[in-house]
Amino acid sequence: MTFSRFMLAALPGTAALLIGIGLARFGYTPLIPALIGQGWLNAPEAVYLGATNLAGYLAGSMLAYRLASRFAPGKVVRFGMLAAAASFVACALPLGFWWFVPWRFLAGFCGALLMIVALPLVLSRMPLDRRARTAGVVFTGVGIGVAASGTLVPSLASYSVSAVWLGMALVAGTLGLLTWRGWGLAPGNTSTAAAQADTAPASGKLLTRPVLLLLIAYGLDSFGFVPHTVFWVDYIARGLGRGLAEGGFYWVCFGCGALCGPLLAGLVAEKLGFHYALLGVFVVKTFGVLLPLFSTSMPALIVSSLVVGALAPGISAVLSGRVAELVGLTGHRQVWGWMTVAVGVAQAGGGYGLSYLFTHNGSYELQFLLGGLALAGGAVLVLFSRSKPARI
Fold this sequence. Notes:
Number of helices: 14
Shape: globular
CATH class: Mainly Alpha
Order of helices and strands: HHHHHHHHHHHHHH
Helix content: over 70%
CATH topology: Growth Hormone, Chain: A
Structural class: mainly alpha
Radius of gyration: 19 Å
Number of strands: 0
CATH architecture: Up-down Bundle
Largest sheet: none
Number of domains: 1
CATH superfamily: MFS general substrate transporter like domains
Distance between the termini: 19 Å
């Protein structure tokens, strides 16, 4: 496969995750201080609205596999991108907390659809030796979206919060239309090897002991970085008293990490294998989440932003490859759906639980401690998930 054909097949997936995760999910984080500062929401409403987005992600993860089985997967992806853009337009109206709830729920729902349906569809078009790298390229969309939101939000918020929402809607709608035709391609067109792998039977039952351990570990990972994806900018802007501009700077650092992390993680997985790469990223991410407990200096906050930003999507990229390795591509979409449900449960529960703790004790530090402990537990489970890969 030539480089141009590789990028042509991978870039629609990059755009899908940019919209569904980078903007619909992570784009809200740097907006929290502005929503509070400009009187659109109070602090408890703002953090609970972030948790509502995670609840939508849970609902989407539970329905995505059924929708992709009933309708053409490409149509599901198209719906997810355009519905996410519509939710941003609706949020540009300052009509109060209860107006935002269904639209932020819809944005989370679309994020799950795009995560579950778009990634396996893109991987099914790739030869076996390009799948780790492809997953890395696709997940860079998360980082691009995060970096864009960290740049756009502080500048557009100086005009109005509505300008921020409309800016995200414009980006999402434009990308959806530009990649529209890419989702009409049939899977497996790019190579005979990809087509054969896509139709090969999975080895054994899907919910094996290694898959179950990874399922729980992924849930712990998702809980573990809720503090960074919900509270990070607010922690820096209001908790440390450094303002929205500086909070936006660290969110851009988070986005730069997310931009590079998946591709780097994919390359490491090609060298070390998916199992050892996954174990390594869990350990490093634990360090990144806990770092603010030891130092709030500028270098420490930059390192924490970069590390957690890189490995938020980086773990997903490596884990996706590990799942395909364990169950084959025929089982990948179903198991990846289970994984995304685990993410949804952990993030919705963690989002509401940590929001409740925050509204009652106001402690950001407790959030980071609990997140780090969850990630450390996930690393232990990954360690014991070693198993021979399936034949794909």
